[in-house]
Design a protein that fits this description.
The complex is a heterodimer of chains A (481) and B (249). Chain A is 26% helix and 31% strand. Chain A has 481 residues and is an alpha/beta fold. In chain A, the strands form 2 sheets. In chain A, strands 1, 2, 4, 6, 7, 9, 11, 12, 14, 16 and 18 form an 11-stranded mixed beta sheet that branches. With 249 residues, chain B is α/β, with parallel strands linked by helices. In chain B, strands 6-9-10-3-11-12 form a 6-stranded mixed beta sheet, sandwiched between helices. The longest helix of chain B has 15 residues. The chains are: A alpha/beta (481), B alpha/beta (249). At the A-B interface, α10 and α11 of A face α2, β7, α3 and β8 of B. Bound molecules: adenosine-5'-diphosphate (ADP) and magnesium ion (MG).
């Protein structure tokens, strides 16, 4: 945790010192969505015409699409006209003026997570001028990365500086026609990260960004694009925190990963966006499209620990395009209170000898609903493809639910597809054993849950694993009894 | 140390303990024997405070306090230890991590400082060796894939680390081969001291050859039917439980 926040700190202050935001007028676009909105965003970002045309095409297509209804989640219809689609950094003066004006419950949580005071203020949306909404933060690592030839910058900057890469790869894995939310994102995406790792380069550090949603009623439409050229290697960390708000906020991001021949991309997420209160008020609606394409001998690995959001709809996927490509998905999704999660993955085997591994750990507490939805597709040419899926659900209490929807499509008889699923309850006898040994019930539950998740935590970079463990502990408070 | 008076307890509304009396002083070892289903494990569960075991009458005094007023973990921190008849698994939680958390909880309640990671490792290793457990086994998940004998020895390991005032061993000897029994008995004897008391629930005289009790009680039909010295166990071994009931009738 501390390491990540240290980085965050540096990023935040680095940006501030650079006076990076001073040339942008501080404003939030009035709610509403039409072609003018799209033009406004594009103009604000001084985008070239090809990108504006791409956004407009996406927007026109999106208007013909319907909101997906198949997921195992329930929420009132979203009014896309009531959302603001652009928010630049705020001036001091908006939002809470000091920590005294922030919900003490929220501050207690930050304290437990070991977040330093000024950072807590930032996370809580206190109007310090280092808090950003839709605009990415320049990192201080840029120079060091530059020496290795690694490009890591806001995607809006990449549009200006590296248009040939963006034109080639943007939308190449997740086209705007892909799904409703991807279409919306393509039309109005605000910002996000771009990474390019040149041939044969091992990225000298973990790349990390913190996404934060701070302003009221601003949908978040990040766009992340990571290109690992042949034989390169990169590990990317995404951490997310949203302050507490009464209204539901929409988040529809798109992440595209491209692993060229022999490259490896490891993408880790720890997500603890505001889940809403115990009655389901507020919280983030998180509808995210994450997909990677792995060329021959390449490897893409998604690891995620999700404890936040009111609704999560998310299926990080890998297209195993080239021969011997490897795809992995390790996931912990914790839902409590009234949270709903419908998550899973898709592994699409195209090349020969492609291998995929899926380990999904779902935890539900209180009245939460947790669904795993996984698709393993074996194409006709995917000789000797192999998939192993392990899907475990853990229930805490008896008013929550876990659902598993595995879909397997195999067009090649030489493929091996294995699926294991278990559902267990945090047993009274396990709890009793822990308490008989002196542990209080909350500590006992968090220990049992952490044990359940160990297989996934092992895949996270060290400091993220610690953070993930703490997050679960904090998230589970009050879930017992 | 422990004074149980007229204890009545039900499980799922079925009366199991029906007026049980038992008094145990510091320094004593008591064996409780009795037919299957007579309520021995129920007594152990009531002492430890397990949910679902309802005390409908009577009292339990532990070190001068009302034991029944304490939560499960409070009893544990106050020195009540239960070695389970059927130890459960906690997958993914290493034995080491579990033992350490448990020891920290108990020690901090006693006002003792936490052990450093190194001190703790040393202690845990030495104690496992004493029980002839491979220290590698500390790294495995709690009881995860342990053999029956390993599970029982793991209970004794926990007991020796926590140094309870009142240890209740529920059939810890069942399912142990003779060597393991010796190891477990040595562990129990090592805990024996003038400040501590031990309750051993067992079916077999065998254990009592190694850990010689001060008192033997027969629990049947929810109360103590007969109490005596170690010779009572020998008598039971020879004659079974039937004659006691006939006697009582
Ligand atoms: N959880 C339970 N639910 C219902 N009955 C139980 C439960 N636990 C124990 N009993 C019953 O209580 C009685 C005493 O059981 P127990 O204390 O385990 O006996 P012992 O340990 O002496 O063999 C038995 O008749 C058993 O079936
Ligand atoms: Mg029993």
């Amino acid at each position: 945790m501390s390491k990540n926040l240290g980085q965050l700190d540096r990023m935040v202050h680095g940006a501030y010192e650079a006076g990076w935001t001073t040339d942008i007028e501080s404003d939030t676009l009035a709610p509403g969505l039409n072609e003018d909105t799209v033009r406004f965003i594009s103009a604000r970002k001084q985008e070239p015409d090809w990108l504006l045309q791409w956004r407009l095409k996406a927007f026109r297509h999106w208007q013909t699409m319907v909101h997906p209804e198949w997921a195992h989640v329930h929420y009132p219809a979203i009014d896309y006209q009531s959302i603001s689609y652009y928010s630049a950094p705020r001036r001091p003066g908006d939002g809470p003026q000091s920590l005294d004006e922030v919900d003490p419950e929220l501050l207690r949580t930050y304290e437990k997570l070991g977040i330093p005071l000024h950072e807590r203020a930032a996370l809580a949306g206190v109007a310090v001028d280092a808090v950003f909404d839709s605009v990415s933060v320049v990192t201080t690592f840029k120079e060091k990365l530059g020496e290795a030839g690694v490009i890591f910058c806001p995607i809006s900057e990449a549009v200006r500086e590296h248009p040939e890469l963006i034109r080639k790869y943007l939308g190449s894995v997740v086209p705007f026609r892909d799904n409703f939310f991807a279409g919306l994102n393509s039309a109005v995406f605000s910002d996000g990260s771009f990474v390019y790792v040149p041939k044969g380069v091992r990225c000298p550090m973990e790349l990390s960004t913190y996404f934060r949603i701070n302003a009221r009623n601003t949908g978040q439409f990040e766009r992340t694009l990571i290109v690992a050229d042949e034989g390169s290697h990169v590990s990317y960390l995404e951490g997310c925190t949203a302050p507490q708000r009464d209204e539901n906020q929409l988040h529809a991001a798109v992440v595209e990963l491209i692993a060229l021949k022999g490259a490896e991309i490891k993408y880790s997420t720890v997500q603890n966006w505001y889940p809403g209160d115990a009655d389901g008020r507020g919280g983030i609606y998180n509808f995210v499209t994450k997909r990677g394409i792995a060329h021959a001998n390449a490897k893409i690995s998604w690891t995620q620990v999700e404890t936040g959001s009111a609704i999560t709809w998310k299926y990080p996927s890998v297209i195993l395009q080239g021969d011997n490509a490897v795809g992995e998905f390790y996931s912990v999704a914790l839902t409590r209170g009234m949270q709903q999660a419908d998550t899973g993955t898709k592994m699409v085997h195209v090349g020969r000898n492609t291998r995929s591994t899926i380990v999904s750990k779902g935890i539900s507490a209180m009245r939460a609903e947790n669904a795993y939805r996984g698709l393993v597709h074996i194409g006709a040419g995917a000789d000797n493809a192999r998939n192993h899926t392990q899907c475990d659900s853990l229930l805490i209490g008896d008013r929550c639910g876990a659902h598993t929807f595995p879909y397997i499509e195999s067009r090649n008889p030489s493929a091996t597809v294995e699926h294991e699923a278990t559902t267990s309850k945090v047993g009274d006898d396990q709890l009793f054993l822990c308490r008989q040994r002196g542990l209080d019930p909350e500590k006992a539950v968090s220990m049992i849950v952490n044990g359940f998740c160990k297989q996934v935590f092992r895949e996270l970079p060290m400091e993220f694993a610690v953070e993930a463990g703490k997050l679960l502990e904090v998230s589970l408070e009050g879930a017992v009894g | 140390m422990l004074k149980i008076a007229n204890l009545h307890a039900t499980v799922a509304d079925t009366p199991i303990l029906k007026g049980l009396n038992l008094e145990i002083n510091a320094g004593e070892v008591h064996a409780i024997m009795g037919p299957n289903g007579s309520g021995k494990s129920t007594l152990a569960a009531v002492l430890a405070g397990r949910d679902g075991y309802e005390v409908t009458a009577g009292s339990i005094e532990y070190q001068g306090r009302d034991l029944l007023a304490l939560a499960v973990e409070e009893r544990a921190r106050a020195g009540v230890f239960l070695a389970f008849q059927y130890p459960v698994e906690i997958p993914g939680v290493s034995n080491m991590e579990f033992l350490r958390a448990s020891l920290e909880a108990v020690r901090s309640h006693r006002g003792e400082p936490n052990l450093s990671a190194v001190e703790f490792m040393k202690l845990a290793r030495a104690t496992s060796q004493q029980l002839q457990l491979d220290p590698e086994f500390l790294k495995r998940g709690v009881n995860e894939g342990f053999s029956g004998g390993e599970k029982k020895r793991n209970e004794i390991l926990q007991m020796l680390l926590l140094q309870p005032n009142l240890a209740i061993l529920d059939e810890t000897d069942s399912g142990l081969d003779i060597d393991a029994l010796q190891v477990v008995a040595d562990g129990v004897n090592a805990l024996r001291s003038p400040e501590r008391a031990i309750i051993m629930v067992t079916h077999y005289q065998r254990l009592l050859d190694y850990v010689v009790p001060d008192y033997v009680h027969v629990l049947a039909d929810g109360c103590i039917l007969r109490s005596g010295g170690p010779e009572l166990a020998l008598e039971l071994e020879a004659k079974g439980y039937g004659w006691l009931r006939d006697d009582a009738a």
